[in-house]
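Field reference: "sequence" (input) and "structure" (output). Example, glucose-6-phosphate 1-epimerase:
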Amino acid sequence: MSLPKQLLSPALKAMNLHQTWTLGETQSYGHCLLKLQTNYKTAHNSIIVKIALKLDWRIGKVNPFMSSIRARLRPRPMPLNIFQDIDVLPRIILAEPTGSSAEVLLYGGQVVSWKNERKEELLFMSSKANWKQSKSIRGGISFCSPQFGNIGSLEKHGSAKNRLWSLDRDPSPLPPSDNQSSVDLILKSTGVDLKTKTCSFEFRLRISLSADKLILIPRVRNTDNKALSFTSSISNYLSVSDISEVRVEGLETLDYFDNLMNRSRFTEQADAITFDGQMDRVYLRTPTKIAIIDHEKKRTFVLQKNAMPDAVVWNPGYRKAKAVPDMGGDDYKFMICVDSAAIENPIVLRPFEEWKGYQELSTVSSSYCSGQLDPHKVLYGFH
Ligand SMILES: O=P(O)(O)OC[C@H]1O[C@H](O)[C@H](O)[C@@H](O)[C@@H]1O
């Protein structure tokens, strides 16, 4: 008996992600049998549809179809908490057993909230942030690539923060995240990027939350057959009590480009960086660990990073903040940007090569001081 068309079409539909396939016997090397059984109820009867699919693949070659089948056969991870209310940008809520949480937008792959177990917000968000899906949202944490700032011909701070990312179900070679405190996102270059960059690429971003720690692992893959060169930063808007109470340690004696002085190069002379007006600097070849100490809040942010040798320190100060349309008058007091970055030497990827960065943000109580920067880790990294 042949299956009526009206039943065959939903049966074929059922062959997609929503059904679990079972792996049948392997008949010989390079062949495999996949089986699916579904039950259809019509008004009068119930019909069992059994579908068997034989797959052949060539020895020694990776078959992308097989790897997608394997991905379907993997045990299902816990569903993510995704919210998509009307008029609100789709967001993923990451939660962690101690009570800390984070919110990640698909738009820009941006982290717009990170709260500790006492529900205190650790990230700054502008009181005039533009929450529409067209411009970047001032605040939180975002991955800026393939260009930092306006050094180059591409969109300022790159296109990654102004695009809608998707969930990345197969973040290999990273293992898939299987809990509700981690999310993997992917963004592929579009025709618009290609017009300006003339090279196709993929961005991937893993955001993981654990007790008092937020980890970001950005990746850039060159999917073209010519070399790709790019600069990047992870822009961190940290919430502080008052910028005049903040000092940044770990950057002393380093060279920096001063963006307020036509990117001229200077050497830091101060013991630590403090703020009494606008500051916009790119510190070069920094240690892997930087401390941002908030005396009034008695809280220290510890920024640890790998594969991003530079660090941007930015606060607009009173005057510049007035000229920034999406920033409230006093907002500059309650924020500091200290970004992990690769700016001085652009990253160059050969065809199909992938770059992987790493950033870990954590908080400790303010008894922290520069003496606690572990010299070994500062010199040799923390992995
Ligand atoms: O105003 P935006 O384009 O978001 O840039 C905000 C800031 O980002 C970085 O920190 C740059 O070093 C600054 O020069 C820039 O002002």
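Helices lie at 5-13, 64-73, 191-197, 317-323, 375-380.
The pocket of 6-O-phosphono-alpha-D-glucopyranose is lined by residues 149, 156-157, 259, 280, 312, 314, 337 (CB under 6 Å).
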